[in-house]
Fold this sequence. Notes:
The complex is a heterodimer of chains A (about 475) and B (about 270).
Chain A: E1 52-54, E2 61-63, H1 68-73, E3 78-79, E4 83-87, H2 94-109, E5 112-117, H3 122-127, E6 130-132, H4 135-147, E7 184-189, H5 192-197, E8 200-204, H6 205-208, H7 222-237, E9 253-257, H8 280-293, E10 297-303, H9 311-320, E11 323-329, E12 346-352, E13 369-373, E14 378-382, H10 383-394, E15 403-405, E16 422-424, H11 426-435, H12 457-460
Parallel strand pairs in A: 4-10, 4-11, 5-8, 5-9, 9-10
Antiparallel strand pairs in A: 1-2, 2-3, 6-7, 11-12, 12-13, 13-14, 15-16
Helix pairs in contact in A: 7-8, 8-9
Chain B: H1 3-9, E1 21-27, H2 32-44, E2 48-53, H3 58-68, H4 72-77, E3 81-85, H5 86-95, H6 116-126, E4 139-144, H7 146-151, H8 156-173, E5 177-184, H9 191-203, E6 206-211, E7 223-229, E8 241-249, E9 254-257
Parallel strand pairs in B: 1-5, 1-6, 2-3, 2-4, 4-5
Antiparallel strand pairs in B: 6-7, 7-8, 8-9
Helix pairs in contact in B: 2-3, 6-8, 8-9
Subunit structure (chain A): Component of the elongator complex which consists of ELP1, ELP2, ELP3, ELP4, ELP5 and ELP6.
Subcellular location (chain A): Cytoplasm; Nucleus
Protein name (chain A): Elongator complex protein 4
Amino acid sequence: MAAVATCGGDAGSAGSAVATGSKSNVTSFQRRGPRASGTNDSGPRLVSITGTRPSVRNGQLLVSTGLPALDQLLGGGLAVGTVLLIEEDKYNIYSSLLFKYFLAEGIVNGHTLLVASANEDPANILQELPAPLLDDNCKKEFDEDVYNHKTPESNIKMKIAWRYQLLPKMEIGPVSSSRFGHYYDASKRIPQELIEASKWHGFFLPEKISSTLKVEPCSLTHGYIKLLQFIQNIIYEEGFDGSNPQKKQKNILRIGIQNLGSPLWGDDICCTENGDSSHSLTKFLYVLRGLLRTSLSVCIITMPTHLIQNKAVIAHITNLSDIVVGLESFIGSERETNPLYKDYHGLIHIRQIPRLNNLVCDESDVKDLGFKLKRKLFTIEWVQDNYLRQERNIYPPGFSYLLKQKDSAWGEGSLQHSTFLMSFLAKATAFASRLVRHSEPLKQTGSGRICQAAGPRLWHDGRRQEAPGLLGIPP
Amino acid sequence: MFPELNNLLNTTPDRAEQGKLTLLCDAKTDGSFLVHHFLSFYLKANCKVCFVALIQSFSHYNIVGQKLGVNLTMARERGQLVFLEGLKSAVDIFFQAQEKPHPLQFLREANAGNLKPLFEFVREALKPVDSGEAGWTYPVLLVDDLSVLLSLGLGAVAVLDFIHYCRATVCWELKGNVVVLVHDSGDVEDEENDILLNGLSHQSHLILRAEGLATGFCRDVHGQLRILWRRPSQSTSQRDQSLTYQYKIQDRSVSFFAKGMSPAVL
Lengths: 475, 266
């Protein structure tokens, strides 16, 4: 890893050239502090790079992926010198969104960008980046979004699902105004002046391989060779590998490669099982990681792994990458109608987290994660959170319930959650409702589809329409 | 090195066996802690170590080694450690034309190559120097990991040939040890990897297999370690001895316990 000495973790300062100019009072861009004058001194002055912070675990330099929710799952952020591989969802909707968040974060922090694509001009990709949200007007809009999720009894101890009380809650909104990761409005485009103020390099494959150069036969496809040479050129010339020591301010190079492995790159790994260039992609990843390890850069790659025919190759690619995140969207699948996944747009699988400079890694305890995209907020939540909200509606507190465990209705998820779904013993509830005192009915929460009639009369006449999902009581 | 693992394997740096091939294998989990263990173990045993590190950079092993009590930088400076860094060499090979053959020459070749240059490098690194300098006890070859070689285009047979040559030189001729790590792909159908794994399992004297738990992820038990001793040379041998332990990796050490006896459960 490139060893960079950082100081305290402050990530807010950026060059004044990148200021938005529109709202100058409360922005995340601050004027360059007195540190700038210190770079001329010859003392052992620690330099901090904008948009980075050291990891709390091992002091490694981290950058934000553009999604604070994902940063939290990856142990604070993306380590400099590593590769983040995103396995695309089926229609490449959310993976390209993550790609854009990553690039937008680079622009907002003043990092240099390198965008490589075989099907879209990098200039067009940059035009479509989401607009960053500034502090003053985003706070109250967030409150509107999270209002629907807040239940006033979230602090009440859960009676049935009490084991889940012990798990940490995942935050879904901005908690502080200090900006390591930023939030973006997916419905607005990034302001043009931000793009123009940023430094970026584009690699558009059809332009680069139009000339026929004589290259010795190597088992990498031509497109990959050109891309590697391009990246290496940028790293060397702009001094990201420390080769130009007179550069005063160090910066991070954010590399984004879109749809790597697709046939547009000249690779047939998505078309046949044992093609000619079956090891081209793995060799590319290996050399790319070698380049990243020796420079101040970080890379995001989106790859259509669902198209790769040879499943063993996916295992190789996973071993050769550092962080692997898989996206699975519910569009067009039968999960769209599953009430468990009611509010979510898809699942996110953290398949691999690296152990860098360490024996342990920051693996999150929650494995069933779903994501949803509201206009301004891409949230990642534990899937059971949705179910638990429904649980409070179906089983109002103040009653005693006899429970029978049933087989889990979910096809996957870790075993420790599979015994969670329960149903009533029909007869016992009729008795219980006469014995237990009626308690205060709950406020209406959730979608309103479930009618909250928390009195004994719900059970007394045996009609079950108010509480879907339960067994019917025989009259 | 992890003292608990030394107790389980019944070895100490002073009286370790020589001439052995140890196979490290991981399935559904990360077995790299075993590589760190053996690296620090053999450095503390005052052996000459040749480390072919194909998957991570030097500073990664250095920082973890410092937690385990060895200093890789100093070991490299005084000649005890010969470190081949795969990632850095790949960049050099790819972008600059090499005059003399590089150990990882196969990266440049279009068709499936062989590992002869790598073997020459290993032999050169571990051959005993006659000038009578600080005497290292015996040479050790450590490879992390062999599955990377398969994913870079080499065939399983080429890798098996390489290990065979290394065994002949290091284990038999120089009375040293060889430790290699291979990933087990499990249910994914990877024929080349299976060939390599089966071939190496047949040849090795000690197999350490780190597996993830069958029931999934657990915060307190990170996996299960299976230790298998094979003694093909002894004819009157007891059967192959096998032990299974569960482990939890901590910041500076790994704790082992019998199955189901995790401190979190008791």
